[in-house]
Amino acid sequence: MIGYILAIGAAATWSMVALSATRIVRYFGSYNYNLLRLVGIVVLFLPYIVVNWDPIYFNKSIFIAIFLSSVIGIIIGDTFLFICLKRLGPRRQALLFSLQIPFSIILAEIFLQTLPSVVELFGCFLIFFGIIVAIQFNRTIPDDDLENIQGNKYVGLIAGVGLALCQAIGIILMKPALEVTDPVRVLIAAILMFFSLGFLKNNDLFERMKDVKKTFYSIFLGFMGMGVGMTMLIIALKNGDPGIISTLSSTMPIMIIPILWIVTKNYAGHLAVIGATLTCFGAGVIFLN
Q1: Contact criterion met (CB below 8 Å) for 225 and 17
Q2: How far apart are CA 111 and CA 209, in angstroms?
Q3: I need a labelling partner for 251 at 20 to 30 A (CA). Which of 2, 27, 202, 258 fits?
Q4: What are the C-alpha distances in Å from 152 to residues 21, 25, 88?
Q5: Cβ-proximal residues to 22 (8 Å cutoff; 6+ apart), any chain
Q6: pTM of this prediction?
Q7: How far apart are CA 262 and CA 280, in angstroms?
Q8: At what angle do helices 242-249 and 153-174 cross, to 10 degrees?
């Protein structure tokens, strides 16, 4: 039960971070913002990594799992996430992120042999269907940069599907190594991305970092999303089925709707409420089971 509660808590945290990060991502750029937040997280969590360092990190199978999860889930997946967020906005990005649900369940069955029961699958379906109804039929917000599409929408669409697949793969890879990893995969991702700057031409990250307020805000959002949100998700994964945990943590699109309502003063619409109700009912089915 605690795992399911933490998964929903992670979704709530990511909802607030996604809405807050949209304008910052458009300022720094997708790759630069991903790198900046990772460097900030490493600085904040480095003492924890040093104090809790374990020789098992050098175990070949564990290190490979951490490394692949870092590259696929954080570097590639999160960069896709911010490309999608930058171009399509938080609401559409959240909808595409929900594709992580079927991806995770299928991958969990293939690699971990942990397919949920029929009742749990029914709950997952209700959550997924509720997300689609709530986001797809949510009323648009005219003349608002949180809602407007910027650039090629098909690039954003491809990035959204890519982020969902990468996140699902990252979760499956994390499962065998959860007892000993967590911040280490973030450290590996940050190091790889930092050294990759030398291969990127005309990168203006350091120029844009002169805006100290936006820089520190990016680090704070990174701490909330990766530090708080991911820690909650990792603890949840230790205490539950990865497919179901992934499903509950993907209720982020539902949670974005009331926050957008507060920020923009626009009512999401009746279908959005119906979708939210379906999602909550699906979560209840999983809890009761």
Answers
A1: yes
A2: 42
A3: 27
A4: 20, 16, 9
A5: 85, 86, 89, 90, 145, 146
A6: 0.75
A7: 20
A8: 140
Chain length of the chain: 289
Nearest-angstrom CA–CA distance, 68 and 65: 5
- Taking Cα atoms as reference points, which of 233, 234, 255, 272 lies closest to residue 19? 255
For residue 10, what are its two tokens? 């992670």
How is residue 35 written in tokens?
Answer: 């790198």
Radius of gyration for the chain, computed over Cα atoms and rounded to the nearest angstrom: 18
Q: Which amino acid is at 94?
A: A
Structure tokens at 7: 């998964």
Q: How many other β-carbons are positioned within 10 Å of the β-carbon of residue 205?
A: 16
DSSP string, 186-234: HHHHHHHHHHHGGG-TT--HHHHTT-HHHHHHHHHHHIIIIIIIHHHHH
Residue 110 corresponds to which tokens in the numbers above? Answer: 């293939």
Helices of type H across the chain: 2-28, 30-51, 60-69, 77-97, 100-107, 118-136, 153-174, 183-196, 205-208, 212-222, 230-238, 242-249, 252-264, 270-288
Residue range 178-202, pLDDT digits in tens: 554 556 667 777 777 777 766 667 7
Structural tokens at position 6:
């933490």
Q: What is the pLDDT of residues 28-43, one digit of tens each?
A: 888 888 888 887 777 7
Structure-token pair, residue 171? 């979760």
